[in-house]
Amino acid sequence: MRSVERIIVALDLASQEEVLATLDRLPDVEFVKVGMELFYSTGPSLIHLLKDRGLKVFLDLKVHDIPNTAAGAMGSLSKLGCDLLNLHCGGGFEMMKRAQEAVVGDTKLIGVTQLTSTNQRILNEELGIPGTVEASVLGYAQLAKEAGLAGVVCSPLEVKAVKGVCGSEFLAVTPGVRPLGVDRQDQKRTMTPKEALQAGSDYLVIGRPILADPDPHGAFCRILEEIEVVA
Ligand code: C5P
Fold this sequence. Notes:
By secondary structure, the protein is an alpha/beta fold. It has one domain: Aldolase class I (TIM Barrel, Alpha-Beta Barrel), CATH 3.20.20.70. It contains 12 helices and 8 strands. The chain has helices spanning 3-6, 16-25, 36-42, 45-52, 67-78, 93-102, 120-126, 133-146, 159-166, 193-199, 208-211, 216-228; strands spanning 7-10, 31-35, 56-63, 84-88, 108-112, 151-153, 171-174, 203-206. α6 (93-102) links the parallel β4 and β5 (108-112). The longest helix has 14 residues, at 133-146. It is globular and about 40 Å long. It binds cytidine-5'-monophosphate.
């Protein structure tokens, strides 16, 4: 895979106008992520618009519901023709299996393990899940693999372990990527783009380090240069 295809730019924006203006400033981008804020404001038409522009699309709606509802959601969403779709592994095995069975076309379904904003204290004290973040991520990854999912979303810190347990073909999509010198903001489990790729990440999801830069194209190109050394 070419390095440019490995960077998924998170379009954490509020409207179609902002997306179009942003894409004009990012001519080299090939893979984008549409999250809740944007999808809930634009609806499915934006996905068609992005696909018509030749972009690959990760629709990041992090579905988490009873198996029947999650499966229905995946049936509807996969019809939009996006390349990646996700749900929360925390919904359990049956939810993931039923959701996977409902996916149509070439869309790949991946599971969110633990959010990259969750650290050890939050996991244990707020979520009430004992053990380490890595153990929780690995447990979810194994369950996702057994349910037939194509991979997981995890932090770069857990990629090696996930690949070790689930195999190299099992996709690891990693947010929580921060180039050196860039603020971590709310992300707690981070690595640089180069480190994430060296750890085995298939795709790097990067938002604010590109979109919040005064020169988004420059920021994107610097990340691309950094990872091209690894690829
Ligand atoms: O701006 P930043 O690079 O932190 O954006 C990361 C993106 O990845 C956000 O859109 C966020 O919703 C998403 N994400 C995440 N952690 C996950 C799953 C998705 O940060 N576990």
